[in-house]
């Protein structure tokens, strides 16, 4: 097996493991029932209501 075949085999294993983790995550997400009521949360008057998004890096930063 040459170095390119080794890289391809390693990537295939990595992709298979990632697909398995993704399937497991989807199953766990579907089983969850502890969701907060979004509409009720933003309608509350006794607290500050903020909708925000955080990002690892700016897309314009390159």
End-to-end distance, in Å?
37 Å
In total, how many beta strands? 0
Overall pLDDT level: 89
Number of domains as seen in the coordinates: 1
Number of helical stretches of at least 4 residues:
2
Q: Rg from C-alpha positions?
A: 21 Å
Helical proportion, percent range: 55-70%
Reading the helices and strands in chain order gives: HH
Q: What is the 3D form?
A: elongated
Parts with pLDDT < 50 across at least 5 consecutive residues: none
Which class of secondary structure composition applies to the elements? mainly alpha
Task: State which percent range the strand residues make up.
Answer: under 5%
Q: Major sheet: size, sense and barrel closure?
A: none
Any overview of this molecule?
This protein has one domain. The chain is elongated, with a radius of gyration of 21 Å. It has helices at 3-31, 38-43. By secondary structure, the protein is an all-alpha fold.
Write the SSE topology:
Elements: H1 3-31, H2 38-43
List keywords for this structure.
62 residues, mainly alpha, 56% helix, 0% strand
Short note summarizing the structure:
The protein contains two helices and no strands. It is mainly α and 62 residues long.
């Amino acid at each position: 097996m040459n170095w390119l075949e080794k890289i391809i085999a390693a990537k295939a294993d990595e992709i298979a493991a990632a697909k398995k983790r993704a399937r497991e995550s989807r199953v766990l997400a579907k089983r969850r029932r502890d969701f907060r009521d979004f509409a009720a949360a933003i309608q509350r008057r006794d607290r500050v209501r903020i909708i925000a998004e955080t990002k690892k890096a700016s897309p314009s930063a390159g």
